[in-house]
Fold this protein.
Amino acid sequence: MKRIVVLLGTRPEVIKLAPVIKELKRRKRYFKVYVIATGQHREMADSFLKHFNIKVDFNLNIMKENQTLTEITSGILAKFEKEVCDKYHPDLIMVQGDTTTAFTAALAAFYRKIKIAHVEAGLRTSDKYSPFPEEMNRRMISCVADFNFAPTKISAKNLACEGHAGKSVFLTGNTIVDALRAYSRLLGKKIISGPDGCGKMILITMHRRENFGRPSEDVCGAVLKILDKYRDVFFRIPVHPNPNIKRVIEKYFGGNERIIVSGPVAYDEMLRLINSAYIIMTDSGGIQEEAPAFGKPVLVLREKTERPEGVFAGVAKLVGTNSSKIVRSVSSLVDSPAEYRKMAKSRNPYGDGKASSRIADILEKVL
């Protein structure tokens, strides 16, 4: 029986690793699974863990207010080695995505010569500072990973171009589709309504480091212009707990009845928000992948995306944070039913819902 430590701590990590954890735990004959939380987004992660009924075996509690990337990296290196590697003696460390904690845990595992699995490997923008530091986190994890689980053909090709082709790269699909299918009973329930006379909800989520400061203020400025232009539109904004985003939202949107601001929401509530939205504006990678399952147009609040599949499929559009460009893009969708239908394709280019079983099958054979 192989001992697998799965590291998670953010909303996307919990959602995308939950179906993998369940599949590995189902195969009790082959795997003993330990779930280690980082404490990175404590309130958000705890809510999602509860929803997916996942028990945490240990919490590293690494997060402190406004700590630097250097402090996160140095702190988790020491903690992970002493409190995870020495305690659980894993045969494999599994990480997902692009967080600094995922990279640092992979590095700690490499130093101990423990095998490493990277779920959602190979996503690239080819700009090391966009997103920062996520792009380089992804690249560096790939260099030490023994199993790079690529979600799409494009991500697998990216890995091949970097010299990772061969026995370490496996095309699996994206586990977020597994999570969506597992909880498909939530789709279509409780359509969320807005203030009287407002029939079109625009959902906004922002959390990326590169959007702190002026970029997030420009997005807020675009929102106010859209509200002036369209009287039947309202906005729903679940605010990320990071104070760099929260302060800006509170500064611009206090007291406006057509802007409904809330704290982070549970997974089922987020699915209902996505399903109820007319348009989605986001810098989130996960929501770029989730929205196509609902046939919702996505305006990506970034200059570059490591998920070009949605753009190629026509269900997402890069708009950045320029206020005028955002207003034009929203106006195009609101004013033109043809343009809206063109983007609102209920086709998800990210997988078939079987990624978790493929990952478990691979590890069962080669670990």
About this structure: The chain has two domains: 2-174+351-366, 190-343. The chain has 15 helices and 13 strands.
